[in-house]
């Protein structure tokens, strides 16, 4: 059994290396070209249509506001990857990995945009009168491949069980480490809190994430910016490190073992893709419920998700770790995951350690809430509304099991299971890229959307 698990781990490690990173990079570049480099051409317009319209009543049909859809989608991406994954990329790929993380974030915007545009375009109403959409719907209605939609729905529904166990374990471990809490009690309390939210339906989930995500992101990023400002004179040299070692190998420094350029690119791409989940097909499930007058307009919100998750939160962690110097400390390579906590502790003492722990707990809690919503939607697609409720109980039980380290053997299959979701989704997005291009052209050439917005601006 041990040899088998080792084989699974080795294979999934290889699969999530060059093969899948190449697939996502090629897909991102192809879609960026296919969609006319829209993320480079319209950044200010997209900002105005998203964050510039937060306090305006959205036009069109939907169940939640576009901002609520964004915070729900962000809940599943903002988490441990942003806080403990970034220092790992620095330790194994060097500071230059951050440059490649930024590059893949900008390229990945086209994938996230395409997924969300398709999700809104092919959405429908369920028995409860809520808008539902995502990969299973654009595979079924757009490609006329219900079998692929069934595959995706079943794979995601099952994959989320070990995923939630891991998240439950992350919460209980953080509580035990910082507050000496009991893992089982933490697991039960977490399940109860999450249950109160997920059984309240889509609107309650949206309201909770609308509050948790912005507050926690602002606190974490704000504290990170204070550290950066305290080291403001170091900023030019940190940017120099990131840019110069993106293209040349870096020699060993203190606790850092050195890195070749190929490793730098691989770790940067991997971190960017893992943190924003472009191509995974989960975020479109949240964006499908948004109130909007055109699929492309909601696609802009999906792009903003990458801006917040990777370009802002991951970059904050990177600057904190690099400016504090903890990455070159003795033994840094032994536990890269602890470097963010060490950096905050260095400047804020025990309060810094607590801030990172509390941020991690809240980010993980919001992640659990939203991925349970994703899983129940898949069960609903496969077996009806009642099955969605049943799966919520299964997922809540998974939190408790995971909190005490239960079923750790299953965790070995997590990355492999993610691949069974990502590959069919990326194929579907590529096959439907012509439809995305058509919708994008319609939005930017119609007097009803982009041209109308531009006219309003020129009049004002």
UniProtKB/TrEMBL annotation:
Extent of the signal sequence: none
Family named by the database record: Belongs to the alanine or glycine:cation symporter (AGCS) (TC 2.A.25) family.
Database matches in NCBIfam families: agcS (TIGR00835)
This protein's name: Alanine or glycine:cation symporter, AGCS family
GO cellular component, one term: plasma membrane
TM region(s), chain numbering: 14-38, 69-92, 98-122, 143-164, 184-202, 211-232, 238-262, 300-327, 347-373, 393-411, 417-434
Record membrane topology: Multi-pass membrane protein
Entry GO MF terms: amino acid:sodium symporter activity
Keywords: Cell membrane, Membrane, Symport, Transmembrane, Transmembrane helix, Transport
Source superkingdom: Bacteria
Pfam families in alphabetical order: Na_Ala_symp
InterPro entries: Na/Ala_symport
Compartment list: Cell membrane
Annotated Gene3D superfamilies: Amino acid/polyamine transporter I
